[in-house]
Design goal:
The protein has 253 residues and is α+β, with helices and mostly antiparallel strands. Helix content is 32%, strand content 25%.
Amino acid sequence: MRARYLLLYVLWTSLVWGADVQPMVARGELAYREGRWVEARDTLIRAAGLTENKDLKQEILMRAGEMNMALLMSPYEQPGCIWLEVQPGDTLGKISRRAGTTIELLKAMNRMSSNNIRLGRRIKVLVEPFDVVIDKSENTATLYLGGQFFKRYDVSTGATANTPEGDFKITDRIVHPDWWHPVSKEKIPYGDPGHKIGTHWLGWDVKGFGIHGTDEPEKIGQAVSLGCVRMRNEDVEELFILLPSGTPVRVKE
């Protein structure tokens, strides 16, 4: 709920910046409390598009992202998801491949603690695709679901502007990745004190680049990396759940 309280503060301090979107944000929060989550999310996204206050826009989108995650992990209907009855021969792996999602997300959405699924069970399945846009000038990663805003994260990009620009795809999804030191080329296993890339790795179809965690979360938001996109570990763990192999990633200046 940090984003909610921060949003209230930014709203109070932003009234001199032009269009007052506070009533719209208040309507969105009311809709959320009353269980109209899709309406709440859409109202906040519209409010973000109306304000010229960059800080306020960021805080509104942060709150909308919280709502999107809560809705996705809820047992409620929402655009982009279907309810599927488990058929003979179905496994989470088969269902995730057919839907273009991840086993981890299926388990999280349906509050499953194992990969076993009961015949005839109804499960919530995401069928809309995600894509990611990395903005090097703002050091942000914006996640879209079915072409619509889903969530925004702070990231770090290359210290020498060497994060490659263009269109890529996620090809490697690794939990507790090893790291190769860029100078010595030594392999540093996960858990070693010298390990630098955090808990998860989402590699791209360009050798040596991807999205990963960090042991320096205080530097997130700055251009300080060796070229990869760094995220807080809790954020890259969330992305790992959401994004399957093949997810498009666009990097822009």
